[in-house]
Amino acid sequence: MTIDEAIRYTDMLANDASTVWEIPMVEIQRLNTLCADALRKMQEMSAKPKGEPAVPDAPDTWQERMKQEYRETKERYEKLHRMVTKYEAGVLEFTPNCSIDLLKQQKRHMGEYLHDLEIRAEIEGVNLYD
After folding, report:
1. How far is residue 120's CA from residue 124's CA, in Å, rounded to a whole number?
2. How many CB atoms lie within 10 A of CB 29?
3. Claim: this prediction has a pTM higher than 0.85
4. Which helix (H) or strand (E) element contains residue 100?
5. Each residue of 51-68: pLDDT tens digit?
């Protein structure tokens, strides 16, 4: 069965199901919409050239993925650092559910991970700062 045939089938099923199975029409329409949308998405994805990434804007190479991982982790680390600093200064606008010690431990681990990425980038010849 092709995707087009499946879409036609869900449309027909939605029209007949309320009389055959006594299912409320609203529920049938909701199911039809879900099925048809999923099938159309599959159709759209299968129409892309094989070389295109499935996720738009996804990095193509391991070097690009490494840079993205570094940037995202660094951004999270800096936000956590600001939060811990504000907590220690007594100006944090909320009370965390976990202890400050756990937050500091998380920050330390994130910093170590960033350092590991930086060392690996130097070894691999990847410029993380582009």
Report:
1. 6
2. 14
3. no
4. helix 100-124
5. 655 556 677 899 999 999
